[in-house]
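Reviewer 2 asked us to include a model.

Predict the structure of this chain.
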Amino acid sequence: MFKSLIVIWFGLSLALPCAAKQKFIWLTDSSPDQQPQQYRQALDVNGVTLGLLMQGISDFQAEPVQTTTERAMAMLKTEASACAGNRLKNAERLTFSYATAIPHTVFPGLRLYSKSSSKTTAWLKQQLNDQQQLSLQHLLESDQKLQFAVGGGRSYGEQLDTLLKQPQWQHKFWQRRSVDMSAGLIDMLVQGRVDLLIEYPNVMQHYLAQQSTDTQLTSFSIQEAEPYMLGYILCAKTPEGQQLTEFFQQRLQSLSQQKSYLEAHLAWVDAADREQLTLLYNQVFDTSF
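Predicted model (structure tokens):
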């Protein structure tokens, strides 16, 4: 009888299906197939870090979907199992998504860029404060006819977002909404279609490296910008999204302590900036690399 029960139990165990992987949508703005070719990111830090986070994981399976920032935020509201990495965390986004408590990425803060040879750059140098920074509010309030390029649906941090949303200054902003948003905005500055661009130094460096023309740009520190920016993983505000957030939280807690995760960040910046980024990484993740 006992042997018969063992045979029956063994047969049932074979018949039971293996636990299925929980598939989720990974919303990203980059793709190795991006066209035109110069719009491809030289290195997709979002994708590289996701690869490290998913390494050896059998319970979850990511399905990358390339989309704009606006569309990604909309999909977090409609897709039960969707997450987006390297995103700023703010009060509005937390109304429809969960966010990891530990950052997904960390990079030097936003800067203001202009063409070095332009009259705008010469004027901006005269507007620097004692800390050698420019106040975006001062620039917007000036009588200069400046045209800024900004990304539609993108968050630039609390202080800058507040300024960029002011209705009286909307005529100064040229907004771009597309999956090639950063590359397209940089193109607009290089081609002289706008005067100024707010962007991350590492993003500028990589896209400019793919430009066929050697355009000299000048960058300025922005008074209202944070000295560094933290990107988080946001997931849909659903039971599935909460489970994914907890999963990524645990993975980030462990992986951020490994040098391979730091190296994924360092590969995204110029060699001259790697010492600064390492110090920043150690400060944020409490490491000592």
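The radius of gyration is 22 Å. Residues 1-17, 34-43 have pLDDT under 50 and may be disordered. We have added this to the supplementary material.
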